[in-house]
Specification:
Layout: E1 2-4, E2 26-27, H1 37-73, H2 94-109, H3 119-128, H4 137-150, H5 158-175, H6 180-199, H7 202-214, H8 219-240, H9 256-288, H10 297-311, H11 320-328, H12 333-352, H13 360-381, H14 389-405, H15 408-417, H16 425-442, H17 450-453, E3 482-485, H18 490-499, E4 508-512, E5 518-523, H19 524-527, E6 546-547, H20 555-565, E7 569-574, E8 577-586, H21 587-602, H22 610-613
Parallel strand pairs: 2-6, 3-4
Antiparallel strand pairs: 1-3, 4-5, 7-8
Helix pairs in contact: 1-4, 1-5, 1-6, 1-8, 2-4, 2-10, 4-5, 5-6, 6-7, 6-8, 7-8, 7-15, 9-12, 9-13, 9-14, 9-16, 10-12, 11-13, 12-13, 13-14, 14-15, 14-16, 15-16
Amino acid sequence: MLFSAKHNTPSGLPVAPSLEPALGLTRFPEQFSAFGKRSVFISLLSILIGILSGFIARTLTALIGLITNISFYGKLSTDFISPAYNHLGLFVIIVPVLGAVIIGFMARYGSTGIRGHGIPEAMEQVILNESRIPARLTFLKPISAAISIGTGGPFGAEGPIIATGGAVGSLIGQLLHTTASERKILLAAGAAAGMAATFGTPISAVLLAVELLLFEFKPQSLIPVALASTAATAIRIIFVGTAPIFKLTDLQQPGSLSLIFYLLMGAVLGVAAVFVTRAVYKVEDTFEKLPVHWMWWPAIGAAAVGLIGYFVPHTMGVGYDNIENILSGSLTGKALLILFLFKFISWSISLGSGTSGGTLAPLFTIGGGLGAVLGGLGVLLFPGIGIDTRIAALVGMAALFAGSARALLASIIFAFETTFQPVGLLPLLLGCSSSYLVSSLMMKNTIMTEKIARKGIKIPFEYEADFLDQALVKDSASYNVVKLNGEDTLEKVRSWFAAGSPESLHHGYPVVDRNENLIGTVSRKTLLSSNYSVISKVADILSTPFAVVYPDSTLKEALDLMAIYDTNRLPVVEKSRPDKIAAILSRSDILKERRNFLRKKYRTERTINLRKLS
């Protein structure tokens, strides 16, 4: 009955006739390719989604232009125009309110999913709903956003376009019966395509998807998203060409002292990012306390938007022209200060009211304005160290987003792609990193995740290689294997259990025939079950199918097999001889390796061996 890897003879029991190895019931570890046929299919779908998102971006932009022209200028035109040049007088206060009333009705009777700025809602669907976005949001979100922005809402078009692109990807994934992982990729591909189609920033769009939606970094997900982003950019080139959205020229090459300034400025922007995030959710909490139904909240917030817009017209609408004026240095002094301060007030109230809008363009405006102000102060206080107020504005724009959304790489590359100015890369790297650091120290969640975190949902912020995906079975398995003979009766096995030897305390056992060919596995619980007669043979109650692992399999593969087949122990076999047991791997072996890994990871070296260093 009992065999040992070190002693290949029965433990004083009769030798049973040879049994045929049950290899037909054996489940071996699958050898996955990094990029297979299914990934090619998903990549082709992503290209299609990218093309669709490109056209959706142009359509939504035209729709925003149409509503803006009708609402503020009384004419039928799809030209993308700012509402700041209207001549409505006090009636300008009414326009955002009317749009918000429509949005409130759409949210209540259509879908509450249109509320908010899109990315947090997409993140929630990825984490909780297997990336399934309701089909109606594909239409309601862009329409509601167009109404909100077109009637003066202080939002950018990119947030709703990103959300709509993600909804399109999710919808296509649902129609084609894809897996949850594949739907997540398609959703992220659509979202990245939306951003790329809006700004012409394919690389930063991919990075944004990685940092905020995918929660992973691997070829199967990265390549489809990259293809979708590129396809959407190609569609944008057809309509608007290849010129950067924000034009900057003749920037001053930063020196060592100016780099220190940009680093410190980034820290200030990190504090500002925390303040902006908390302010938005403070406003949202205040609306929650109002004694009126939430469908009327957007109208209340829109009244503030209209009132501010009456005094500071450029706070209304998408404000891409504001960003360009800030970055070019044409907007300075008191006008600059008033713009970014009142833009922040208008946007935070409107967004906190639960209307349909976005965060990217407002954050860029606020951050760019603050950066330009800080840059101007730097020039006054430290003349001659090479501070360029335009670079300061660029750093401010990217650093505020990096700190508030925790999208470090996306922020840096976005600022580069929208200006095509490599001179700004080093200041951007310093400023965004500093902002990210300060924000992380002061604030647990971000402007994208705070709402989700309040629902008790944990959002991953850090991505690292799984230790279990690097450790091999052969380094953790036990080579002193305890086996059972398939011809033994349960009576003999139970008598052996009763003897209480250490080998009889395992949770499960591999089972072999007289030639020690593997024929299956059986659990201790099954061996002791009253459902089987004591004269039953072990071979008659084997677990089928049963899983095995190879010595060069990873512990992650092994753990997945244990979960799938509900077992605590896996036989280890050589690929050349899958019917022969080489070792046994238990869950406790895996936990032991994990424990050793954690000890090494968090161990602090208190002494330095100078001999080793030399």
